[in-house]
Design a protein that fits this description.
Blueprint lengths: L11 H29 L4 H27 L18 E3 L4 E3 L4 E3 L4 E3 L4 E3 L4 E3 L4 H29 L5 H8 L1 H7 L5 H31 L4 H6 L9 H9 L23 H6 L6
Antiparallel strand pairs: 1-2, 3-4, 5-6
Helix pairs in contact: 1-2, 1-3, 2-3, 3-6, 4-5, 5-6
Length: about 280
């Protein structure tokens, strides 16, 4: 596995989004474990510690896959690329080199990415051939974690928020505005803000994960889906998933440290196209 050498975000937007996500991981974990869960299980130590273990496992997989996406280099730098311009290959004028099919230059990363799916601002890097697996696992655990938190946070909001007045309603639907510009600078209002962020994050995470899982199952990247290019769809969901998650695709969900060799090098896609009709 090749790791990136230059890790500092290339753009201001990437830097802000990356810092926001890293801070929210820690704050939300602290909030759920030490504020929300004790309210539900204050009289039952066994259940409380059980949920602490579950929360820690979810946190480990969210952060672990996030770090893997960020560290793994999925660019063409250092790869052995043929010097002959083939029919489906391209020449990148910026990198001044020949690039294989499905590879595109990223203006933010300032390099060509193997099987580029898209550039993710929140992780401050491109999602490509070698880190796509970790990105999908990250989204799955983020969706599960936010669903898990939102269940308890909804009860927390219901218990500590009154909707009998307009101001009470605004505390719930505009928690940040009330906290910054309103008269409520209490810890409780900050807690309401964290609950709302988690619930909003849940809808975003579930939607994004479902979309990305669909593209992977159909054997396409985001660009290919938009252009309706299905040249690399093997016609079999499991085989398409293996192209992204590797041969041990059924185990990678357990931990980001589980090895799962990819069946393709991300360069010679013509070899894959020869087997296209195999699964039809």
């Amino acid at each position: 596995m090749k790791l990136r050498k230059k890790l500092f975000p290339k753009s201001t937007c990437d830097f802000i989004c990356l810092i926001f996500l890293l801070v929210m991981f820690q704050v939300c974990y602290w909030f759920e474990v030490f504020v929300v869960l004790p309210i539900h299980y204050e009289d039952n130590d066994v259940l409380y510690w059980f949920h602490c273990v579950i929360s820690t496992i979810l946190m480990f997989n969210v952060v672990g896959n996030f770090v893997a996406v960020y560290l793994v280099d999925t660019s063409i730098e250092g790869r052995i690329i043929p010097s002959t311009l083939k029919k489906t290959w391209k020449f990148c004028e910026v990198c001044e080199c020949i690039t294989p099919p499905r590879s595109w230059h990223c203006n933010v990363c300032e390099k060509c990415i193997l099987k580029r799916d898209h550039h993710c601002n929140f992780i401050a890097c491109c999602i490509g051939h070698y880190n796509h697996r970790y990105f999908l696992a990250f989204l799955m655990y983020l969706a599960i974690s936010t669903l898990y938190c939102s269940y308890y946070n909804a009860y927390y909001l219901w218990r500590f928020t009154t909707l009998k007045s307009i101001y009470g309603f605004l505390k719930l639907i505009l928690p940040l505005a009330v906290l910054v510009f309103g008269s409520d600078f209490s810890q409780m209002q900050f807690n309401r803000l964290l609950c709302v962020i988690t619930i909003v994050g849940m809808f975003a995470a579930v939607t994004i994960f479902a979309y990305n899982l669909t593209t992977v199952a159909n054997g396409v990247t985001m660009y290919e889906k938009g252009k309706k290019i299905y040249d690399y769809n093997l016609g079999n969901t499991v085989e398409n998933i293996k192209q992204v998650l590797g041969e041990r695709w059924y185990l990678i969900w357990i931990s980001p440290f589980i090895e799962s060799k990819l069946p393709h090098d991300g360069i010679h896609w013509d070899n894959l196209k020869k087997t296209y009709g195999k699964y039809k």
